[in-house]
């Protein structure tokens, strides 16, 4: 398993903390990098680090409702670039609005998941992400 970083774009500090903790709890060795707003994520994806294979995230977990630039705008940037287009992007949001789900999938999100409220359910979700996207999906880590 490649240990390229996982990028979590999440403005809620508690959600980010518990997500990182859940990845550790299920034994994922990849670093979970956190960005707190969409503008920072867009700057990152337009910056030099994405050209370095080992610094480019193997997966992006992207909240929809972000400050400065929303998650759908970040997704558009990722999917607009040939060198980033194959990075798996999972929309992980508290929004269950059909319009958000439809727009995210139309823009090229690989999946759309509503954030679980309970930590035990979050850990199960992260174990599922680990099993499919990090172990079995061929273009992931």
Describe the protein in words:
The protein has one domain (6-133): 3-Layer(aba) Sandwich (Rossmann fold), CATH 3.40.50. Strand 1, helix 1 and strand 2 (32-35) form a beta-alpha-beta unit. It is built from 5 helices and 5 strands. Helix 1 (13-25) crosses helix 5 (119-136). The protein is globular and about 35 Å long. The chain is an alpha/beta fold and 141 residues long.
How are the SSEs placed, and which strands pair?
Blueprint (H helix, E strand, L loop, with lengths): L5 E4 L3 H13 L6 E4 L2 H8 L13 E4 L8 H10 L8 E5 L4 H9 L4 E4 L4 H18 L5
Parallel strand pairs: 1-2, 1-3, 3-4, 4-5
Task: Provide a short characterization of the protein structure.
The chain has 141 residues and is of the alpha/beta class.
Helix content: 40-55%
CATH superfamily annotation: Response regulator
CA radius of gyration is 14 Å
Please count the beta strands (DSSP E, at least 2 residues each).
5
The oligomeric status of these chains comes to single chain
What separation lies between the terminal Cα atoms? 6 Å
Biggest sheet, spatial arrangement of strands: 2-1-3-4-5
Percentage beta strand: 5-15%
Any idea what the CATH architecture is?
A: 3-Layer(aba) Sandwich
Structural class: alpha/beta
**Structural domain count:** 1
What characterizes the major β-sheet?
Answer: 5 strands, parallel
- What's the CATH topology label? Rossmann fold
Low-confidence parts: none
How would you sum up the global shape? Answer: globular
Order of helices and strands: EHEHEHEHEH
Query: Number of helical segments?
Result: 5
């Amino acid at each position: 398993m490649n240990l390229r970083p996982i990028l979590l774009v999440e403005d809620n500090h508690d959600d980010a903390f518990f997500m990182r903790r859940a990845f550790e709890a299920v034994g994922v060795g990849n670093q979970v990098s956190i960005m707190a707003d969409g503008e920072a994520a867009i700057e990152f994806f337009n910056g030099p680090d994405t050209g370095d294979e080992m610094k480019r995230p193997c997966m992006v977990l992207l909240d929809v409702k972000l400050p400065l630039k929303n998650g759908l705008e970040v997704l558009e940037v990722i999917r607009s670039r040939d060198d980033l287009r194959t990075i798996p992007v999972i929309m992980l949001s508290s929004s269950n609005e059909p319009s958000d789900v439809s727009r995210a999938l139309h823009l090229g999100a690989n999946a759309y998941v509503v954030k679980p409220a309970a930590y035990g359910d979050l850990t199960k979700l992260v174990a599922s992400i680990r099993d499919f996207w990090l172990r079995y999906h061929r273009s992931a880590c």
